[in-house]
Amino acid sequence: MDRREYLKLMLAGSVGTGLLIATSCTDEDQALSEKIISDNSYGRIPEELQRDNELREAVFFTAHERKTIEILCDLIIPADEVSGGATDAGVPDFIEFMMKDIPSMQVPTRGGLMWLDNQSRKLYNKDFVDCSTSDQQQLIEEIAYPQEGDEEMQYGVRFFNRIRDLTATGFFTSEIGIEYLGYQGNRATMWDGVPPHVLKNHGMSYDQKTLDESLKPENRTKIAEWDDEGNLL
After folding, report:
1. Parent domain of 114
2. Are residues 32 and 140 in the same domain?
3. 148-189 pLDDT tens trace
């Protein structure tokens, strides 16, 4: 089993039956779903949008650190015949964002990158980014298995665990990763109310107010609002 399949199974196992594949979407459903998710501002209040934009504009990693992150990401999830790798999926951008979104990650991650370069200089007399791919892989092998790492390598083990977790999260929540998983969940569902024949069998029907306010197809993508008394506006 290659590392990509292993990480895929780890992700699938963590959510269990929560990943339900929707197979009954119509073309109309698909179009409405894509309309909803295409706008990154959907469901975000102005303050959240402002913070997101500020984080995206800020830069945390130096050019050298960024290059190291890119190499690590593609060592963890390389491109193959099925799909692109971690950098193709934008994982380095995701990790950059996470450093700014969760500042407590910054010191241990930057320290881990320094540790990696120091260890690389000891072994190969050069920074990690300047090593051959085989030497990079050999060094990573020393810190990739928490139960087997030597005591003096434990700082590197913890660092690599964090990068591996971030890489897997970034990849399998990207467009490339979701397509690789075949996951089609978290899409807008379209409910047209109880089918007429079911209502008829039970001697029931919707009143006109419900039909006018709650079951209009053109209102499917709108966020409902209520007044102070709980009435739908």
Report:
1. 3-181
2. yes
3. 767 888 999 999 999 999 999 999 999 999 888 887 776 666
